[in-house]
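$ ./design --mode recover --in tokens.txt
reading tokens...
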């Protein structure tokens, strides 16, 4: 039984439309969330389900529908569901908050998860045909909603949703399944029902009524804040334990009451039973309910390589140590306690198999996997798991250690791994443990057991492990009060190694596990609590051990409290077992009559003064007579290699010689007789005085101890009184704090709402600023003191080759598109050093001109935190400036043309006159307006027109003819001899588009 429960988290609610989930702390509204999964035949099942919903009331819960859909086909499920329900039906968008009385439909080609009250969409990883969206969603729903998670499995093929059913039940939720006879395809419902975890098996039309009845009973009356919870009926709980033990043979009274109470309350909600006493009566009337409750209490939520970090540490730090120094004939024994359906046990076996492949050797490996649940053990023995385990295993391990079943909906463990495991039903509480183990894995089981049981199990694990063996616990479990039994390998991942400090085993109450060794056991000295060594001893050591047995009297190695760690010799004359429950043997309690006072005094003196203490002639009563014995207590100096920090003492007991005490044999009788001689009387008086002195020392020691104890008790009493007063004061403060916290909580709620409004305003302002910067068309780059890029606008990418991943990089590392300007970094640094802005016109390789401005970045507090580079497009201004320059040049040329005495004209290639200056008007008589309507042929005499065409051809061939004398006609019809100079006017492409002529009258000629 490997279960991992989480705390119940409040379900979120939505205060404003949107897709961004809010924090759960700000959402007091909590409601059940129903996940409904279906595959083939699911449309009809959905229709029947929502047809059974009440038409006039709201169910006060949310419904999330997950169906196997074709990735390239639009689903009609939303339109179908809207016909049969009054609830709002929506196809899920990423991040959509879940509200009560709404239905949500998964979109095609998406996996969906539930987190913090919102639905999140993910791209599927598995190929089409191997996706398990229902199981994926059920697991996330259980982890987020805990007891408020409800799962419903409808018609479909395969086993999708079965592991999700286990997850929901493990978190205390409720599960329904469609009755197989009412389905079109019964694969999914039958797989869920086979787990034994389904609470209701109904046709879809009957599910809503039962669902609403369950929700009303379980969640219909939430406790008010500050209300006192109803008293729990411990008597009814004990009755349930009695009935469970009678029906199943297992006692759950030693489990944590909170766990048991939670599971019982869920079963009460299933049957709509109000009190625990009524449920106990129901158990008596319905014996089958005991089996169902038993299975609920043993729900195992587990998976392959659960908690990958822990298994990774196990693989690196523990598994190699299991094989180190082992021969192939020595078996490696592992115990997986509470294995549930076997996933973690098989995970251990896979790690062992991989290690053997790495070492290229074969070892004897035995993995004992045990659990209380017979059904779980039966499933583990089969080794057949749903296809969803692919999410927990790497592709390599899945291919190496598993075989896909026909149809692809399940995997079976390889026989080579299966043969490493032995599965059996076993109770940690009442059954004996396995022994001689190298590793014990007991994860997420101790957290459900009471403290007393845990105190028994940790020493049991220590006993069951070999020296240096390992213990693997769950992340919420520890070894508790026994840190001296186990060495911590990884505190976070709960990996421990058994301690072996030479006497740790003797501190354990092992009598409950194995019978103690007798005094005649041939165990060599120093091997107490361990098996005899078969290794041949050196001759010197063998000789020394034999002399010790022959010479040294009885002795005991103890600590300051008198706990026996090691006994040497036959001590029966001086020690006897104390009656009652056995545990750690104590020398002071086992001392026979007459020995205890001197032994107590001597041990205390040795502990206080750290010196040898000797008592001679101590009278010890043995078999009705008294025996004289010499007592010696010596502090033991530990060897440097010993890992003990506890002071140890050696108590030596040896028979007293007659000269050291009273005479032996008959002298005893003479000393006690009424007719003793004078010598015997003196000896008796001496003995009585010695005994009186011993009694006085013992009494003095007892008085000192009593005074010390009284002082400690007085001090403790004063401290307790002070603590009591502090607790009373603290209680009053807590009452006041409670009221203050309630007030603060209300204030925080108000502040939270205000902050949310401010966040929305800031988000809107940020959007406005981004749009403003992008809309201005000004390239802007923000840099910090180290010239690292902080932010830039889209237009800046035309000047500097920036992408989003360049944020944080120095601006000098980015290639710019500027031509003839390479001082960007130097100029920016100069602005930061001098705080004097800089302006410069720059041009890009695309021919675009920009006005670059660099100025310091100032905060509202007038603190310089970097620089701002802006680039304003000047292309139009530069072009206008150039055009203006050309216009000015043309203006100056026009003035020259206007004021010239020569006739200056422009004509196109067809001969049309385009320009006519005042000189031409004076020379030829036509005004400018009249000339612009004329063709140049109108001014050339007919006989000279062919020559004019020849001149034009020369100009078109880039030939520049010399000025020549020709004739032109005036307005009055006269022929005028003129010197004519012609020039070709070329466009930007180098082609002639017009001809400019300059004509001057030949003053030496004559007019016709």
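writing sequence...
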């Amino acid at each position: 039984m490997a279960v991992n429960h989480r705390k119940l988290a409040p379900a979120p609610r939505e205060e404003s439309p949107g897709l961004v989930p809010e924090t759960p702390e700000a959402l007091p509204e909590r409601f059940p969330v129903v996940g409904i999964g279906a595959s083939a035949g699911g449309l009809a099942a959905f229709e029947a389900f929502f047809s059974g919903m009440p038409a006039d009331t709201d169910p006060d819960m949310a419904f999330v529908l997950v169906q196997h859909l074709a990735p390239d086909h639009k689903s009609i499920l939303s339109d179908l569901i809207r016909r049969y329900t009054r609830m709002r039906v929506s196809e899920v968008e990423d991040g959509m908050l879940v509200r009560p009385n709404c239905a949500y439909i998964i979109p095609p080609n998406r996996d969906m998860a539930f987190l913090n009250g919102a639905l999140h969409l993910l791209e599927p990883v598995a190929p089409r045909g191997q996706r398990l969206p229902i199981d994926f969603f059920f697991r996330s729903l259980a982890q987020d909603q805990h007891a408020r998670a409800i799962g419903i499995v409808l018609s479909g093929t395969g086993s999708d949703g079965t592991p999700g059913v286990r997850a929901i039940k493990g978190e205390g939720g409720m599960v329904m399944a469609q009755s197989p006879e009412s389905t079109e395809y019964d694969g999914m419902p039958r797989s869920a029902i086979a787990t034994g975890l389904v609470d209701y098996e109904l046709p879809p039309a009957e599910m809503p009524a039962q669902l609403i009845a369950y929700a009303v009973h379980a969640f219909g009356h939430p406790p008010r804040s500050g209300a006192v919870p109803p008293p729990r009926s411990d008597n009814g709980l004990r009755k349930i334990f009695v009935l469970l033990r009678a029906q199943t043979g297992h006692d759950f009274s030693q489990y944590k009451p909170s766990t048991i109470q939670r599971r019982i309350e869920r079963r009460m909600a299933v049957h709509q039973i109000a009190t625990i006493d009524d449920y106990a009566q129901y158990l008596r009337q319905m014996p089958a309910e005991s089996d169902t409750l038993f299975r609920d209490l043993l729900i195992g939520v587990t998976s392959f390589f659960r908690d990958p970090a822990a298994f990774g540490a196990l693989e690196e730090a523990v598994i190699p140590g299991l094989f180190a120094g082992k021969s192939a004939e020595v078996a490696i024994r592992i115990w997986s306690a509470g294995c549930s359906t076997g996933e973690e046990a098989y995970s251990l076996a896979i790690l062992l198999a991989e290690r053997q492949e790495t070492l290229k050797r074969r070892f004897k490996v035995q993995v004992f996997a045990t659990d209380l649940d017979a059904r779980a053990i039966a499933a583990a023995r089969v080794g057949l798991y749903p296809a969803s385990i692919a999410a927990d295993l790497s592709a390599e391990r899945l291919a190496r250690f598993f075989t896909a079943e026909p149809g692809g909906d399940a995997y079976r463990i390889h026989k080579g791994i299966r043969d490493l495991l032995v599965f059996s039903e076993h109770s940690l509480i009442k059954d004996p443990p396995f022994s001689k183990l190298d590793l014990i894995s007991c994860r997420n089981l101790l957290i459900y057991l009471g403290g007393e049981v845990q105190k028994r199990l940790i020493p049991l694990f220590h006993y069951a492990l070999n020296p240096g063996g390992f213990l693997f616990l769950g992340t919420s479990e520890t070894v508790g009060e026994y840190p001296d039994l186990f060495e911590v390998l990884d505190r976070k991942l709960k990996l421990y190694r058994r301690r072996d400090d030479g006497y740790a085993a003797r501190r354990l109450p092992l009598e409950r596990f194995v019978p103690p060794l007798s005094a005649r056991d041939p165990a060599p000295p120093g091997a107490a609590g361990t098996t005899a060594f078969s290794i041949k001893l050196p001759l010197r050591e063998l000789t020394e051990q034999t002399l010790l047995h022959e010479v040294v009297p009885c002795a005991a190695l103890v600590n300051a409290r008198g706990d026996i760690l090691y006994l040497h010799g036959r001590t029966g004359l001086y020690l006897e077992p104390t009656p009652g429950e056995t545990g750690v043997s104590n020398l002071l309690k086992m001392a026979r009559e007459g020995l205890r006072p001197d032994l107590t005094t001597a041990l205390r003196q040795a502990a206080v003064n750290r010196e040898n203490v000797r008592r001679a002639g101590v009278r010890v009563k043995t078999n009705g007579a008294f025996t004289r014995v010499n007592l010696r207590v010596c502090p033991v100096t530990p060897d440097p290699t010993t890992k003990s920090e506890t002071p140890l003492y050696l108590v030596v007991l040896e028979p007293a010689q007659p000269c050291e005490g009273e005479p032996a044999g008959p002298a005893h009788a003479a000393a006690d007789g009424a007719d003793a001689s004078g010598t015997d009387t003196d000896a008796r008086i001496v003995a009585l005085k010695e005994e009186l002195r011993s009694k006085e020392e013992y009494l003095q020691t007892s008085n000192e101890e009593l005074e010390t104890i009284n002082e400690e008790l007085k001090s403790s009493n004063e401290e307790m009184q002070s603590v009591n007063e502090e607790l009373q004061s603290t209680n009053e403060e807590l009452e006041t704090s409670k009221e203050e916290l309630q007030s603060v909580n209300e204030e925080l709620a108000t502040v939270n709402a205000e902050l949310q409004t401010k966040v929305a305003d800031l988000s809107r302002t940020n959007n406005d600023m981004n749009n403003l910067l992008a809309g201005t068309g000004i390239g802007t780059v923000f840099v910090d003191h180290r010239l690292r890029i902080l932010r830039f606008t889209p237009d800046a990418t035309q000047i500097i080759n920036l992408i989003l991943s360049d944020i944080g990089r120095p601006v000098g590392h980015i290639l710019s598109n500027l031509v003839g300007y390479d001082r960007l970094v130097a100029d920016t640094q100069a602005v930061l050093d001098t705080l004097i802005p800089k302006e410069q016109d720059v041009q890009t390789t695309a021919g675009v001109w920009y006005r670059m401005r660099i100025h310091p970045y100032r905060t509202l507090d007038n603190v310089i935190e970097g620089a701002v580079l802006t680039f304003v497009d000047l292309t139009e201004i530069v072009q206008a400036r150039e055009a203006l320059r050309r216009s000015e040049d043309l203006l100056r040329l026009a003035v020259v043309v206007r004021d010239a005495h020569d006739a200056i004209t422009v004509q196109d290639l067809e001969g049309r006159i385009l320009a006519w200056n005042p000189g031409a008007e004076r020379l030829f008589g036509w005004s400018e307006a009249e000339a612009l309507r004329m063709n140049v042929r109108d001014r050339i005499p007919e006989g000279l027109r062919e020559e004019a065409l020849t001149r034009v051809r020369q100009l078109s061939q880039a030939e520049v003819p010399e000025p020549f004398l020709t004739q032109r006609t005036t307005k009055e019809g006269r022929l005028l001899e003129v010197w004519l100079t012609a020039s070709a006017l070329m466009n930007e492409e180098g082609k002639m588009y017009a001809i400019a002529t300059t004509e001057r009258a030949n003053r030496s000629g004559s007019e016709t």
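exit 0
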